Amino acid sequence: MTSATVARLTTGPILGAYHESRETSGLSWKDLYITPGNRTYMIGSQNGGFPDFGHHVKLEMGGLWLHPIKLLDGFWLRIANSGSEDANDRKWLTESDSFHNYPFHNEHRYTLPSLKLEVERSQFCPDDTEGFVISYTLRDTSGEPRSLSASFLARTDLSPVWFSEGKGIEDSFDEGRIDQDGGLFLAKDGGQPWHVVVGADRACSSGAVGRELFGPHWTAGKGISGELTYDDIIVPAGGETVIRFFIAGSYTSEEAALLTYKKLASSCQELWASKRERYEAIAAQTVISIPDPHLQKVFGWVKFHNDWFVRDVPEVGRGMGAGHPEYPWWFGCDNSYTLLGLLPLGGLDMAQETLELIRRTSEETNGNGRIIHELSTSGLVANPGNTQETAHFIKCVWDVFGWTGDIQFLRSMYSGVKKGLSWLLGEMDPDGDLLPEGYGIIEIEGLNVELIDSAVYTWSALRAGTQMAVLLGEHEQADEYASLAERLGDTINKELWLEKEGLYADAMASVGKVMSRIDIYIERARSMGAEGAVASMQAMKEEMQQLDPASEKPWLFKNWVINTPMETGLAPRDKAIRALDRMGTDEFTGPWGTYLSGLYQDQMMTISTGVQAVAEAQYDRMDESLRYIRLIASTFNKRLPGSISEMSPDYGCFVQAWTVYGIAWPMLTGMFGIQPEAHRRKLKLRPRLPKEWNEISVKNVSLGLGELHNVLDWSISHSESVQTYSFELKQTGWSVELDLLVTADETVMLDGVSVEPVTTAEGGSAIRIEAAGKHVITVKKRA
């Protein structure tokens, strides 16, 4: 076997620029990574191992997954000098020296001094394929030609995804065999039609199967191991040889797994090239240039992260999952944030596809407009939905429609929107005060009461429903929704605003209900050492003892959701500024972002910080918004090179979908000010820059789907004497409204011709361009 037999899979210059790495010698196994794919993905340790971990499927959330099943716990390679009987000449690749992450593949690098070898392990998951490819590059450091043998051991764990027991699915012990003629290890679950096939790019000399056959590490579960050995692997002096392995699976039949295996073995180069080209297209979408190199790099990686979450299970659906490794399936709540961040990055189709999956499943499960919380890839719903999720979903539908303009999509959603609003303001509002009851994003145990996030998102949902109804010709319905929205907004701003605190309350609830839980909360805070929280709740308890248990009042628990009135723009500016100023202090903001609770002040999360960033941008506080975006970005590479953890700075899921909301949404819709109404072929550009940003641009922003599709390039340049705004729409037929901040002593030129802006209701200066194409607008001081 020569080095020319198997070609290396090359990353190329575009994706090669996205390369993050770390030394791994001595690294904890808890530092995980993902090799992403829409059908399969691999979760392992950055040090090269495959640890048992996980709480959804206990000890089994790592390894190679083909949802709705798991295929492998892991794989290991042992290398030896051919014919040697010396144990020192046989080395398992266990702990790597370094880990290298790229947008869609990873590498582990090893040094084996006793064998005078360097080894590079690289892996990727081809698109739309139920398989996985691993390449080992063996590089000689002895200066002599080499003959080596290698043994590849794969440990199966053919088992179901979390929550499959609801379908009566049980995991059995795996069974395996060696096909010597085909050079394959084949395994199946003893009771289900789940199969996996393992082989290489060359014939094996021998093979072995055993339940107690392990490589360097034992793993839990009911799996079985297959070991394939390869002799006479020739490595030229000072040169290298590549040996490649293919793993294919199926949850329906061995025949399907074998067909996939043949596809991998015969078309590996083509599959690699196809995935590389697709990721190069992701890199080319929404390309920003900003005077912050670190944030610009993080922004580039976040675009790739979006693709890591696409879960495609043919019998269930396709859409954005939530987080790796513990939440790879679909959520109502998470996606109402995630999809907004996805929109300006080119994810218009995926946003609609995800919402349709959630809508369809919610209708099948609930049938009353209630939106589900969590859908396993088994097809079973684990939680029928918290109150906030229905309102939030409706808001998200309208935001997505603004970018796609797909009227058929809106029609398909509208009946569910109406049912959802009826459910929120009917069954979930028994006292008729327009404040829906039930759990929100923050599930305060035992307090499924009238919560701020549910109320605020219901207000947003009513406003969205109003616009949908107008567009679809239901004007009486529109008037009803508009009236309800106005009443609810007034209620929130009067009843849930705490003037003394300068903050919105978390909840409206009876004194008796809170009193029944307060001792539990106090003891929990005490057990966590949160003495500040203990003192605050003790004071709350003393106040309650003087009140009528039946009376209702607003309660402040200082959870991050009290930002939602500002996030949505519901809060009047005077209230918003007071609240945001306080949220920006060290009472609510820690070293890595916004605390989940200003009482406990111990945990920060990308979503709490992201909502704060969006809230600041909502009121044109772009310096403050940038502060929070940078706090999110500051946790980049803290755990997984090339990624941002769910919990700041470095724990929880090592990559989380909704992180994109706090980065892309305030930056693209707030700072760049890109606000499309695609169904009207209308684009509003309302740039509001942080003070330190004078030169920014973005290229290749997708707007609209189908015949409405357009592409925007947009740049802004500020100097002491002139402001220049340049944009180009690649397709004709769209109108543009440019909303600038122009003073009375400034003149505006459109393509060299003086124009007079129209003052907007918000105090901006609007320049309207019909049939827009390529234009330059300048703003200068009058001579």
From TrEMBL:
InterPro entries: 6-hairpin_glycosidase_sf, 6hp_glycosidase-like_sf, Bac_rhamnosid6H. One of its GO terms (biological process) is carbohydrate metabolic process. It comes from the Bacteria. Residues 386-507 form the Alpha-L-rhamnosidase six-hairpin glycosidase domain. This is Alpha-L-rhamnosidase six-hairpin glycosidase domain-containing protein. It comes from Paenibacillus taihuensis. The lineage of its organism: Bacteria, Bacillati, Bacillota, Bacilli, Bacillales.
